[in-house]
Amino acid sequence: MKERDIIQHITNLAPSKGEGVVQGIGDDCAVIEKDDNTVWLLTMDTLVETVHFDRKWHPPELLGRKSISVNVSDVAAMGGKPLFVLLSASLPQSFDQKWFSAFSEGIAQGCRDYGCILIGGDTVCSPEGYSFTVTVIGETAKENVLYRSSASPGDEIWVSGWLGHAAAGLEIFSRGIDSNAQEFEPLLNAHLNPEARTQLGLELGRCGLVSSMMDLSDGMATDLAHLCQRSKVKGEIYADRLPLSALLVRATDILGLSPTMLALNGGEDYELLFTAPPGAAFTVEQIGQACGLDLYRVGHICEGSGVVLLTPDDQNNIREQRIAYGGFDHFGADKKRHGNTK
Q: How far is CA 255 from CA 53, 172, 185, 249, 252, in A?
């Protein structure tokens, strides 16, 4: 079974409705009624040593902050504001107290940065290695919630920043390439210390023009496939519109990788992926500018299913390549990645 098969198996066992449940399994957060006008947003994620992080290169304080950021990103993807955090820490019997103290400082810093409060959790002894589970509870106005399931044919597909930086940083670390080179610091930092797009998510939710949204954790190919499956539509991405930085191109040339494939499949970008009708473009760009971010139109939604990459050749003929679910899968063949996934 692949990861999405396991999720579907669990989904089939869960009741489809319950008192107060607006949205259960199937989105970045569960959505629970708070009152007539407001909803709670709940998300949870686990980071396991050697699967999601490697202590050889990931400073503990940055890992602590990252564990908050990746969950806050889910709340941002629903158009919400993070409020409360729960932390479960699984530590080996003889854990490194200095390392854990620095990790805890990172947790505290992440909470301060995003304006949320650590309110509880759990600690247990692990037979081997470290793992951490974080739950974030947020809220937003009921009318501002953005789901994965509302994209429509004709919508344009947007992303909120460069793609592939975190994946390139991970490759540099895992291959033992000189990670002290200042040239690649933005790539390394994208992997070690991602930034959740909280203000952008809030503003896109409030504007009333965005049709669907999620964050990019497993890579464009997989995450857009999830969005299209939930919305029962097809996504088409233009290869020449993907936001690939000159630094990414330089790094992938050294790594012997395709910048396009790394951007599509690498994951851990934690940018926002969203759809909106063409008439919303001016407002969306204004929101991006107000948040200090460049937003990119990379494709469009049409009738059908799946996700395809459209690439022009030298004669301007368009080659169509199916790329759905091309990103990381916990139960897939490629197990080398140390990164967070959803």
A: 20, 8, 16, 10, 5
